[in-house]
Write a structure and sequence with these properties.
Blueprint (H helix, E strand, L loop, with lengths): L2 E13 L4 E13 L14 H8 L7 E6 L2 E2 L5 H11 L15
Antiparallel strand pairs: 1-2, 1-3, 3-4
This protein binds adenosine-5'-triphosphate (ATP) and magnesium ion.
The site of adenosine-5'-triphosphate has 12 residues, from strand 2 and helix 1.
């Protein structure tokens, strides 16, 4: 099997103006095409942050993500939008789209 997803040295820190929150630090992982993976860990350990970055809806402070050898262009927002549309599917835990009370 070939490598579908490669995550290298991924880091993300949030700031609230006073305090820094290191959400993920130097994360490495790789997934083979066709693999099924589950990410688990205690609340606040950075699962959502990591998945949002892999899903190309958040930008890391450092490190890299690649799909089939193509590096995700986190430094170019318009290219990132196109890359996400063409490569990633996300199903959110919360239903975020508006509705008419349905
Ligand atoms: N937008 C944000 N601003 C500031 N801190 C944030 C933000 N998003 C996440 N964090 C912090 O980053 C850390 C990781 O959060 P994250 O939501 O990725 O964890 P999680 O593993 O998904 O948690 P849970 O299991 O509760 O969903 C936590 O300390 C959280 O408080
Ligand atoms: Mg979460």
């Amino acid at each position: 099997m070939s490598t579908l997803l490669q995550v290298q040295n991924l880091t993300k820190t949030y700031h609230d103006g006073v305090t820094e929150f290191v959400a993920i630090r130097q994360v490495d992982l790789s997934l083979q095409a066709g693999a099924f993976a589950a990410l688990s860990g205690p609340s606040g350990c950075g699962k959502t942050t990591l998945l949002n970055i892999i899903g190309c809806i958040e930008v890391p402070d450092g490190g890299a993500v690649s799909f089939e050898g193509e590096t995700v262009p986190f430094d170019k927002m318009t290219v990132l939008d196109k890359f996400r549309r063409e490569n990633v599917e996300l199903v959110f835990q919360e239903f975020n789209l508006g509705s008419d009370g349905l």
